[in-house]
Amino acid sequence: MSKKIIFTEKAPAAIGPYSQAVLAGNTLYVSGQIALDLAPLGDIKAETQRIMENLGHILAEAGMDYTNVVKSSIFLKKMDDFGIVNEVYGSFYPENPPARETVQVAKLPKDVNVEISVIAVK
Fold first, then answer.
1. Entry pTM
2. Which long-range contacts (CB under 8 A, 24 or more apart) does 58-62 make?
3. Which of 1, 21, 74, 107 has the smallest set of CB atoms within 10 Å of its CB?
4. 11-27 tens-digit pLDDT
5. Beta strands of the chain (E only): which ranges?
6. What Pfam families does the record tag this protein with (predicted)?
7. What phi and psi values does residue 82 have, to the nearest 5 degrees?
């Protein structure tokens, strides 16, 4: 199985010992994305929009798009933000959305409000 590190300057660089994404065979594993440039803004809609755009840039670097996403994980600081995050997130998947879980967590890096990771397949 081949393994390729995926990186784009259009999305934030990793802030630790991890890659933006790893392509293993035909499967792309995208690390959790946060709205690093907006932290700690606190505007959950803006944060989610930026994260989804960053995910799109990473997917494109791997020759994919949102239609290739088969699984998403959403981590929220407050479950009260679920409705807003869901609305923005859903606008990127108008048909056949991927499998997903959404969980509330105690704290996220850089004190952001939301983090999203995805798995995509060619």
1. 0.95
2. 58/6, 58/8, 58/11, 58/20, 58/21, 58/30, 58/33, 59/28, 59/30, 59/118, 59/120, 60/8, 61/6, 61/7, 61/8, 61/10, 61/21, 62/6, 62/21, 62/23, 62/28, 62/120
3. 1
4. 998 888 999 999 999 99
5. 3-6, 21-24, 27-33, 69-76, 99-104, 114-121
6. Ribonuc_L-PSP
7. -55, -45
